Amino acid sequence: MTPPLHSAALSAADHLRVDGVSRSFPDRRVLTDVSFTVSSGEIAALIGENGSGKSTLLRIAAGVDEPDVGSVSAPGSVGLFHQEPPFALDLTIEEVLADATGPVRALVQQVEDAGQGLADGRPGADTRLHAAIDAADRHHAWELDHRVGRVCDGLGLAHLLRDRRVRELSGGQVSRLSLAWFLLRSPDTLLLDEPTNHLDDAATAVLVDLLRGWSGPVLLASHDRAFLDEVGTTLLDLDPTPRPFATVRHDTDSPGSGFGITKFTGSYTAYLRQRQEERERWVHRFRDEQAELTRLRVRARDDHIVGRPDRPPRTEGRAAKKFYADRNAKVVARRVNDATTALERLEREQVRKPPARLRFVGLGGDTAGEGRTPTLGDSTASSSGPLLTATGLAVAGRLAPTTLSLHARSRLLVTGPNGSGKSTLLSVLAGDVAPDHGSLTAPRRLRIALLSQEPLHRDPTESVRSAYAAAVGQERAERTPLATFGLIAGRDANRPVGALSVGQRRRLDLAILLADPPDVLVLDEPTNHLSLLLVTELERSLPDYPGAVIVASHDRWLRDSWAGERLALEGTA
């Protein structure tokens, strides 16, 4: 729980400082010697592959987790927005909002008390009044009621009855209410883990505006590329970078095995270009250094012999033999010393081997390793007509009557604000939710599979490899191994599912879905939780999928580049 707000003023020297933080778990190392500073008013964005330690670092910064070594200091109160809501689920929405605004309202009371103290002539009352006013200003106490309305309206919560219990809300509504709680709590140091996952454009715009006016340091992790471009004043990349270490002290197959952190001031778009160029230089330097190490080792070995040992001196005299022996010894010693010194220096200063990077193989017909395309039902295999037709599909209170037609190679993007019914529509099409009204016409053997917004629940003690085999069947798992897709690193296949990050668990769900590719691939917010690199690769491969694809997304980058059909939902009202 976030501590009470401090009344002491923040100064320009009040920064979030992370100094030499390292964190390991029993089966892997995540963070190694991470140091950086986030100044008051700065918005720093953590980026990196799934499993690189972004959420772990945020938890350490919030004091929820402890580093193995290193330290963290943060000014004032600290608030962490992450997976779990910061309030009890049996509270009403009104009670949650009252709990969120309580510390800020207390600041107003402090101003009144200090003002009364000044009027009563109490010693030090003027200093306390100045500090109280400063704290109230910093936390926007004077406009709190307006701020509550603005945040609730912007995050799509205004239409909810305030006496509703939190447990009665959907997962997305709980997530947005949690974000509202943190924003209204107005901590001095704000930490956000994937804050835009359940936000539409209007809600994201409100969040962007609030963050830009935040007085304290802000550290966030996000896979929303447009959001990063809008708010990020600094990028902090946790993926491995070239740093000179004499010995390999990390797992090169682990996304979180890098030393330190790469800081970049500029847009995410610009950083993508720089990072690609930097990696190419790293790969070339490592290759050249390894070739030079091989050459120096051969030289150090061969330089022990000078001249032609099979050709004796031109005279057999003892003095001549001694002369040539002494000369050879000196030359050998000098050459061996030169080669050894150069070898030791290079071994000490060489860059680490660039870690193997996961590369998603795409959604093409060979994704499953069988070289086949999805097989449609017999009645439609040769038909060019509609594959799936929905007429007036509706779910009371969740989805207004919706009609659509899908062909075998359709690419349909479903858009709309929060609450418009996007996820409900996808669940109805996938057969997970029964419609109250309307009809759905499809061939009897049509196969539809849905990647839901959040990872599916699986036995947390089961290994990733075993969970994959259990979901797709042992025979298919042997024919189409998990490694086929480039979604799960080799070292992670034997880890328990419960030890994976949210993004890694969603990668597992996608691999299971693709092991037997359906006729209709349904993706609900496919960019949620997935790494920036995977999101880009997934988008690029959408045209290659051999069946139909339906995507529901708030991601502005995906929507801006979409070349297929679109369906805009307006809501149930």
Description:
The protein is an alpha/beta fold and 573 residues long. The protein has three domains: 16-275, 3-Layer(aba) Sandwich (Rossmann fold), CATH 3.40.50; 287-349; 388-568, Rossmann fold, CATH 3.40.50. It contains 15 helices and 17 strands. It has a six-stranded mixed beta sheet, sandwiched between helices. Strands 14-15-16-12-17 form a five-stranded parallel beta sheet, sandwiched between helices. Helix 14 links the parallel strand 15 and strand 16 (548-552). It is flat. Mean pLDDT is 82; it is low at 1-9, 242-258 and 365-382. One of its GO terms (molecular function) is ATP binding.
Classified in CATH, the superfamily of the largest domain is P-loop containing nucleotide triphosphate hydrolases
How many distinct domains? 3
The first-level CATH class name of the largest domain? Alpha Beta
C-alpha Rg (nearest Å): 30 Å
Distance from first to last alpha carbon? 36 Å
Kindly summarize this structure in a few lines:
This protein has 573 residues and is of the alpha/beta class.
Short key terms for the protein model shown above:
single chain; 573 residues; alpha/beta; Rossmann fold; 3 domains; 6-stranded mixed beta sheet; 5-stranded parallel beta sheet; 17 strands; 37% helix; flat; disordered N terminus; repeat; P-loop_NTPase; ATP-binding cassette domain-containing protein; nucleotide-binding
